Amino acid sequence: MSTNRIFLYKRYERFWHWSQAALVIFMLITGFEIHGSYEWFGFHRAADLHTFTAWTLLALWAFTIFWQFTTGEWRQYIPTLKKVDAMIRYYVLGIFTNAPNPFQKSTVKKHNPLQRLAYLALLAFVSPIIWGSGLFYLFYAYWKDGAIGAYLDLPMVAMIHTVGAFMMLTFFIVHVYLTTTGHTPLAHIKTMITGWEEEEQH
Predict the structure, then answer these.
(1) Do 185 and 178 meet the contact criterion of CB atoms below 8 Å apart?
(2) Can you give the pTM of this predicted structure?
(3) How far apart are CA 8 and CA 104, in angstroms?
(4) How many CB atoms lie within 10 A of CB 58?
(5) What is the pLDDT confidence band of residue 202, given thresholds at 50, 70 and 90?
(6) d(CA 127, CA 33)
(7) Mean pLDDT for the stretch of residues 41-64
(8) CA 202/CA 195 separation, integer angstroms
(9) What is the pLDDT of residues 5-36, one digit of tens each?
């Protein structure tokens, strides 16, 4: 068994990843305070910070989408079902029996099939729920007296937004857990800091 070392993540990828993580964590913190789960900043301060952070994240995404398409990195997220069953078996059983990872990363394939499907679900399902309800919540004054207001009210929007927040929190927890499934518990974290991936070759 040997170790294969490859440079996977460029500087902007690492910046985007950690910046997005920090913004999402802060939005979860301020969002659950707005929801009334605890008090830290105070409701109004938390609401202002939550809104500012949301716009900042949208700006980051705009730059990142531009970067993804100009570099061709968007291809890394094209979903595939190839080896999905093998990855499921690995995550359910293989990592607990020291079985080899059926997916080997490369510069053109950085995400395994399950990761690609998870990102697809995040972009196609979770994100529209969060951002759609968030924008409805933010611009409530503009639609409450119109046709939309006849079918939708603010408590319903808040509930949908909270459901989306729990989905994002679940994704975040699973994502953090999966970072510990490398050949060492901190291997994937180290990769996202340095850009270099070290994988054991069986």
Answers:
(1) no
(2) 0.89
(3) 12
(4) 13
(5) low
(6) 20
(7) 96
(8) 22
(9) 889 999 999 999 999 999 999 999 999 999 88
* Confidence (pLDDT) at 200: 61
**Secondary structure of 90-159 as H, E, C letters:** HHHCHHHCCCCCCCCCECCECCCHHHHHHHHHHHHHHHHHHHHHHHHHHCHHHHCCCCHHHCCCHHHHHH
With H, G, I as helix, E, B as strand and everything else as coil, classify residue 179: coil
CB 199 within 8 A of CB 104: yes
Tokens of 151: 């079918």
Residue 37: both structure tokens together? 């789960």
Please name each of the domains of the chain with its CATH number. Answer: 2-201 (1.20.950.20)
State how far the alpha carbon of 131 is from the alpha carbons of 46, 102, 122, 169, in Å: 18, 35, 12, 15
